Amino acid sequence: MEKTPDYINFHAEEFAYDPSFQSYVLASKESDIAFWKNWISDHPEKQTEITEAIQIIDAIYARLPQGKMDSEINRITAAVHAEFQNPPQKHIHSWKNKPFYKYAAAAVFLIISTFVVLSLFNNQSTDSKQLVTNHVVEKSTGKGQKLTITLKDGTQIKLNAESKITYPENFSDSVRWVTLDGEAYFEVAKNPDQPFIVKCGDFHTQVLGTSFNINAYPEINNIEVSLVEGKVKTYIQGQKSSDLYLEPEEMASYNITNRSIAKSAFDTQKNIAWKDGIIHFEKASFDQMKLTLERWYDVKFVVAKTPGIKGFTGEFKNQSLEDVLDGISFSVGFKFEISGKKVYINN
Questions:
Q1: Rg of the chain in Å (alpha carbons)
Q2: Vertex 242 angle, CA 241 and 245, to 5°
């Protein structure tokens, strides 16, 4: 059995060139994803190196033209295949004692990354080792909370209730990335030379400067990107063919189960009303309303019997929980009682 590398001594570049780590970042192999999630959780002291390695991979994926990437991959893969079919028999260095194909992914990545570094930083002395040492910043909200964050580049982010966003304290020169769990509204500071990428699992949204909303709450099994201004590209990391571009008032919906993306129009009032203190329901079931109200007001519903609601449509702006429930119950027909942080529902 092949021995697992001693990752605890790895630097950022070594992580970035490791095939297993590449597979984790590109979300291409479940076993690697599971391994690295556990490993990163067990080694918080390596967060800086991990962050920089992800930045390297992101910079390569975001910047390399698809035609050039395809040609380089094909050329190097062919060379690797030929080498594997006719491996050298003499003067084999110790690092080649293992089967050659295990280094194929690293070889391809190394060639591609070299091309990217040269193309991005031509006539400059900067290289990947000069990445700023970073700390990862994490901001989160609980139920009933919202938060506005201003990043160092001027980007403003409004974080909805029960959401979390992580980002490096200092962006690299080539890419700005953040990771989102939950929902947030972004007003991205424009910088053509430094794309802004929002990661929601393996679904990414890339922009230069624009305003958009992302809803990535886990329970809906969909990630929705609603574009207000500018232009964005959404894609599944590792699948270039999945690129989907949005114009204002268009929305991308990513189905997490079957990993497919669909584009449609959207209603601004419905999708991003939350940032202005508005709760908007559109043909919502009782369970959907319950989930929203629990998150919005930091309460827990205790339901004796679920009301038979086929679909409720309504809007509430900066109203108390009691006023909202009064409005819903009047239309639908159920009784409620609020006691502390619990809401009791009876038919």
A1: 24
A2: 110
Q: 72 CB contacts (<8 Å, ≥6 apart)?
A: 108, 111, 112, 115
Q: Which domains does the chain have, with CATH numbers?
A: 7-130 (no CATH), 136-270 (2.60.120.1440), 277-346 (3.55.50.30)
CA distances from 312 to 46, 207, 299 (A): 49, 35, 20
Structure tokens, 301: 């519903």
pLDDT tens-place string over residues 231-279: 999 988 767 677 899 999 999 999 988 888 999 998 877 888 999 999 9
Residues 6+ apart with CB under 8 A from 248: 227, 228, 229, 230
> Do residues 256 and 222 touch, judged by C-beta distance below 8 A?
yes
Amino acid in the structure at residue 288: Q
Q: How far apart are CA 98 and CA 87, in angstroms?
A: 12
Please list the alpha-helical segments (H only) found in 64-123.
66-85, 104-120
